[in-house]
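Translate structure to sequence.
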């Protein structure tokens, strides 16, 4: 993971951005392996849960120029880097960005526990920061890193995307936004749900809760369209 000349890749595919401020926009996805958290409802456990998945089947260690070539084949100028937690491999990611065309728009999804390197801050057009709430089952000490969140907020290009399902979750999300003094217009509430039925049950509530607080809301287009089928 710490080798900065290669990336440990989970998946590489083209799709539409399914969540966050650019939901619906066509893009290439680079999903990196490994995560420093263990959220109970994680929908990409194949990037880190090596009890349930075989690491040999789920990961490829790829040289940076080869990753760049694979990405270029899709012919899109918009890249979303996700995981897992992509900032675990951020030194290599910074190296990848130096060999990608400067015209590409790059978004990075992160759980907000790791401070981004200055090279990444300079290059990344949009940060989709999704700090986990207590509904993740993760401990506060592991999931909440105010210094990392502060560094991401200071980029001026970061959105908070908070996964909620209940009024308690919304109250917790609101408390976090207020503690971080994060601008409301850069906050999105997103319904928890790994199936269409789960999403349908929470979406109306989440939209109303977001509107009441001046937050935005995020869809989950991948669940709506493909119900979590991989590589979409
Ligand atoms: S931070 Fe994201 S990738 Fe990591 S376990 Fe939680 S939901 Fe999954």
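Result:
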């Amino acid at each position: 993971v710490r080798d900065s000349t290669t990336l440990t890749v989970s998946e590489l595919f083209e799709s539409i951005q399914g969540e966050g401020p650019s939901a619906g926009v066509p893009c290439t996805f680079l999903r990196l392996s490994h995560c420093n958290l263990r959220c109970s409802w994680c929908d990409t456990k194949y990037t880190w849960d090596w009890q349930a998945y075989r690491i040999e089947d789920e990961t490829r260690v790829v040289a940076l120029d080869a990753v760049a070539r694979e990405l270029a084949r899709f012919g899109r100028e918009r890249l979303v880097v996700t995981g897992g937690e992509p900032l675990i491999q951020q030194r290599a990611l910074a190296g990848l960005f130096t060999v990608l065309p400067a015209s590409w728009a790059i978004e990075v999804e992160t759980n907000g526990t790791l401070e981004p390197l200055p090279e990444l801050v300079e290059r990344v057009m949009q940060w989709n920061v999704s700090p986990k709430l207590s509904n993740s089952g993760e401990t506060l000490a592991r999931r909440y890193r105010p210094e990392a969140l502060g560094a991401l907020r200071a980029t001026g290009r970061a959105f908070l995307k908070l996964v909620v399902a209940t009024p308690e979750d919304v109250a917790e999300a609101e408390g976090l936004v207020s503690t971080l003094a994060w601008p409301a217009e850069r906050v999105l509430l997103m319904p928890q749900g790994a199936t269409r039925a789960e999403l349908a049950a929470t979406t109306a509530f989440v939209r109303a809760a977001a509107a009441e607080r001046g937050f935005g809301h995020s869809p989950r287009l991948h669940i709506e369209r493909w119900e979590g089928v991989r590589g979409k």
